[in-house]
Amino acid sequence: MVAVDVAQAYADGRVPTNISYITPDYLSESRDGPAIAGILAIYIITTILLICRFASRIFIVKSFGLDDGIAAFSWACFTAFMALCLVLINEGSGRHIEYIQYVLSMPEVEETEIVDFAAHLVYTATLYLCRMSGLAFFTRLCSSHPTFRISIWACGFFLTAAFLVQFFLILFHCLPVTGLWPYAWQTTGRTYKCITWGIVYVSNSSLSLICDFVLFSIPIAMIAILQLPKGRKIVLSLVMLPGMLVIGISCARLWLCVVGQWRTDGSWYYNPQLVIEVAEIGCTLIALSVPSYKPILSR
């Protein structure tokens, strides 16, 4: 079935008719529905598990720590990012590149670029807050071990430095500074001197993967080195299970960023990338919330 906006683009003469593979059916293809369903499912599951975490900390343990406070703020940022992802999908950012070029109007294309710019600033900040929540938890767990406290502070400085690099790469991807990510066929591209989308995102994804390795190496070291009670070692082992999933998700995001930049129809992979990014934040929050479920399970 031909989409209404595609039919209108043909009626307006905006779609070239001399390219054989660009047909109304091709331009109408969409993976928006599954992407929206996946994002909402991940968000709802993460929210339910975070509510369980906060209920456990407030009503059973009766102690709401710094790590819990940062996690709550991370969830608020996560909510904003999830909403921006839905906006991007509804605006057509995950459709074929020819749909973006020929069906969307230039103001609509620029709007998707600005929303993408804002969304990934929020995404970068949210992941950083999630990791800081994890470090706060690890600090509370081994507060009496000075060597580990120093190691965790060092990890904190590294994660902060990586976050600043990621944030400023997005913020200053063009000079003068703009929220646009101009395509080669956009006339606005001549106004700005920009780093390509792929270089920014692949660089940030690589840094993010390194940060995940750094963060989730801490519980491995604690299990191996510290003389912890058996219960605490079990808790740290449980943190590692979803932690390994987070690292796998980071690898998938890196691959999608490479594909999105260096394949001709890169925008077709954008919806899966958004789902992966939502999953990365959600799994990080869940992984670092696992220890808080122990009091509930004990009851």
UniProtKB/TrEMBL annotation:
Annotated InterPro entries: Rhodopsin_dom_fungi, SAT4-like
Keyword Ion transport appears in the UniProt entry: no
Domain Rhodopsin: start-end pairs: 53-299
Entry membrane topology: Multi-pass membrane protein
Keywords on record: Membrane, Transmembrane, Transmembrane helix
Keyword Mitochondrion: no
Pfam families: Fung_rhodopsin
Location, primary (coarse class): membrane
Transmembrane segments: 35-56, 68-89, 150-172, 207-228, 235-256
Subcellular location: Membrane
GO cellular component: membrane
Family: Belongs to the SAT4 family.
Protein name stated in the entry: Rhodopsin domain-containing protein
Lineage per the UniProt record: Eukaryota, Fungi, Dikarya, Ascomycota, Pezizomycotina
